[in-house]
What we know:
Blueprint (H helix, E strand, L loop, with lengths): L4 E5 L3 H14 L2 E5 L2 H11 L3 E5 L7 H9 L6 E5 L4 H9 L4 E4 L4 H24 L3 E4 L2 E4 L4 E4 L2 E2 L4 H12 L7 H9 L8 H14 L9 E4 L3 E4 L2
Parallel strand pairs: 1-2, 1-3, 3-4, 4-5
Antiparallel strand pairs: 6-7, 7-8, 8-9, 10-11
Helix pairs in contact: 2-3, 6-7, 6-8
Amino acid sequence: xxxxxxxxxxxxxxxxxxxxxxxxxxxxxxxxxxxxxxxxxxxxxxxxxxxxxxxxxxxxxxxxxxxxxxxxxxxxxxxxxxxxxxxxxxxxxxxxxxxxxxxxxxxxxxxxxxxxxxxxxxxxxxxxxxxxxxxxxxxxxxxxxxxxxxxxxxxxxxxxxxxxxxxxxxxxxxxxxxxxxxxxxxxxxxxxxxxxxxxxxxxxxxxxxxxxxxxxxxxxxxxxxxxxxxx
Length: 231
């Protein structure tokens, strides 16, 4: 049986009931909200381990909820969108969502992704409590013990997934990783769909760590192979 508390934010009552039924059946402790304002209140009160967040919500959109929560707590967020539009996916990832699914979706796939996201979050939590080290790559510094990163002396404002990606690449300085490998290692599951998730995070990470993102010196593209971090 699975464990963990999951907040489901969905204004479609039928889908909400279906999600809650299946999550409860899997052994999760499920709480629910039907609009963005209620989602914020419940998230702050219940401190869930993961949030399933619809984009189209009354009062506050899923984008707004995600943006606010990202400033307050490092909770994994899976966003749901009814439209198979690239803009929705990209905006969700840019503001800090860890993953997204397009409706309609397979309940089996949803449960698999949730399990992988929760395992990844727990692994990172254990890593942070067991490790007290700082990684330095040129003018980049990643303080794993404090869960912070700095560039040229200034603290970086990173989303949780940007931080995870930076830590992985910094830990493996100089090694080239394909998009599929990064999805597997950083997102925590074998991703069978669009690998542009990686490109979005690489682009936004470059905006934060490079003096000139158009001419990166740290986060490099290796044509036909993937990405690597150099000092």
